[in-house]
Design a protein that fits this description.
The structure is a single chain. By secondary structure, the chain is an alpha+beta fold. The chain is built from 3 helices and 5 strands. Strands 1-3-4-5-2 form a 5-stranded antiparallel sheet. The longest helix has 16 residues, at 60-75.
């Protein structure tokens, strides 16, 4: 696959479609099984609170993966992502109820680089707090 977005059609400031991603305790159990990360802070409320967390929290790598979906959906090609990095600033707290939490992600083209690449800056929020900082992806466009 190749990116469906043409480099020449993109300008600095181009906004990607924002998306929201629900996270429930069941989501965390599924991710733990897929990733092998069974740290009790991601599923055991009592343990999470004993170590100073407000409640069970989503895996950082899960949060990071959900955020990059805004970019891969925009390009139409996950392989178009050349670089991706974030700083974990706040946890995504996932209450034990039917609603869970929501991760809200938006992005925009910050810089046009060489070789048909652009840097996309992402903003990921949950419960009114920024959960990822310096969230940036370099993407190769068509």
């Amino acid at each position: 696959m190749t990116a469906k977005i043409a480099y020449d059609d993109v300008e600095v400031g181009t906004e990607l479609s924002a998306q929201t991603f629900p996270v429930t305790r069941a989501t965390l159990v599924q991710y733990a099984g897929a990733s092998g990360d069974f740290n009790p802070i991601h599923w055991n409320e009592k343990f999470a609170k004993e170590v100073g967390l407000p409640d069970v929290i989503a895996h950082g790598m899960f949060t990071m993966a959900e955020a990059i979906r805004v970019v891969t959906d925009w390009t139409g090609d996950p392989g178009a992502v050349v670089e991706y990095g974030v700083r974990f600033t706040k946890p995504v707290v996932v209450p034990n109820d039917d609603e869970g939490a929501v991760i809200e992600v938006s992005g925009k083209v910050a810089v046009k680089l060489d070789d048909n690449t652009v840097r996309v800056d992402l903003t990921a929020m949950s419960n009114g707090q920024k959960v990822l900082g310096m969230s940036r992806a370099v993407v190769r466009l068509a």
